[in-house]
Design a protein that fits this description.
ten-stranded mixed beta sheet; binds S-adenosylmethionine; Rossmann fold; alpha/beta; 278 residues; 26% strand; globular; single chain
């Protein structure tokens, strides 16, 4: 299951915007020091940058680490254009750009191998279900300074719903989550497991709230590029069903593709946003 793709991540952006938990976001903004140093793990296309500006955080030092070089290259160009519009011009630098009071760099690499640092905030969005939690938390603790915050928005938590009802729904959902669990380091219940870990650990769990994705047609049309986003989700599920011997799977996937084309399919994924001070 390969999630790293510019069109998929850009289409996901609007779905995330609706889903992000406002209470957790507000706690993050209340606790963030002025002019924070921010490191983003698995930055993808860099969608966090325009979101920070929209939230009123315009003075910061940001480093996005992403292992896919094509995404890094897209993020540098596209986010420079976004911030130029927002703050009135950018100056290119070796790994990114300066925009008003913000400096931005993107680096191709393994976020889990991050060096020791002194960041005020580590962001890891839609990432915690892809990697071992020990490695993720250890990397975040290395990157953060003493009072640093770890923000984990859009953390998948093992709920995948499609509507209208189909008789194979429960079997398909189980097979999909089983396939995710079988991939090395992945956890289809990452949200609840991280919630437990953060509660039990020495740090402070400052915020936790649901951030479920809901993609639904409005008068038979999906907003923005969300029809494409949903087609990719269906392909992830179809890949998981391949060879899984699930009763009714063929009819399930054909029905879902038909409903998507007709603008009749709704999709919900259960997720958490967490804010933790290690
Ligand atoms: C589901 S995408 C989320 C991207 C972005 N955070 C967002 O929400 O739009 C997961 C991203 O993790 C990246 N990735 C996976 N393992 C990584 C690692 N060890 N270090 C850096 N990036 C990684 C993938 O290339 C992909 O861009």
């Amino acid at each position: 299951m390969e999630h790293a793709n510019v069109r998929y991540l850009e289409a996901k952006r609007g779905v995330d915007d609706r889903a992000l938990n406002r209470r957790v976001r507000d706690r993050l903004l209340a606790d963030l020091p002025p002019a924070p140093e921010i490191v983003e793990f698995a930055a993808g296309t860099g969608v966090t940058l325009p979101r920070l500006v929209e939230w009123g955080v315009t003075e910061f030092d940001y480093l996005g680490i992403e292992r896919d070089a094509d995404l890094v290259s897209y993020a540098r160009d596209r986010r420079a254009a976004d911030l130029a519009d927002a703050v009135g011009g950018v100056t290119p630098t070796e790994q990114g750009f300066r925009a008003g009071d913000a400096t931005v760099a993107f680096r191709t690499g393994d976020a889990l191998a991050v060096d020791d640092g002194d960041a005020d905030l580590v962001v890891a969005q839609a990432f915690a279900d892809l990697v071992p939690h020990d490695d993720l938390l250890a990397a975040a603790e290395r990157a953060l300074g003493p009072d640093g915050l770890l923000y984990l928005p859009i953390t998948f938590d093992g709920g995948t719903l499609f509507q209208p009802d189909h008789p194979a729904d429960d079997r398909v959902e189980a097979a999909y989550h089983d396939r995710i669990a079988a991939e090395p380091g992945r956890d289809p219940r990452a949200g609840r497991h991280l919630l437990d870990r953060c509660r039990a650990a020495d740090g402070d769990l400052l915020g936790a709230g649901a951030s479920d994705w809901i993609v639904r047609p409005i008068e038979g049309e999906y907003p923005g590029d969300e029809g494409f986003f949903l087609s990719r989700i269906l392909e992830f599920v179809a890949d998981a069903l391949d060879g899984a011997n699930v009763d009714g799977a063929t009819d399930w996937i054909e029905t879902r593709r038909r409903q998507l084309a007709a603008g009749e399919l709704t999709y919900v994924a259960h997720q958490y946003d967490l804010l933790y001070a290690p």
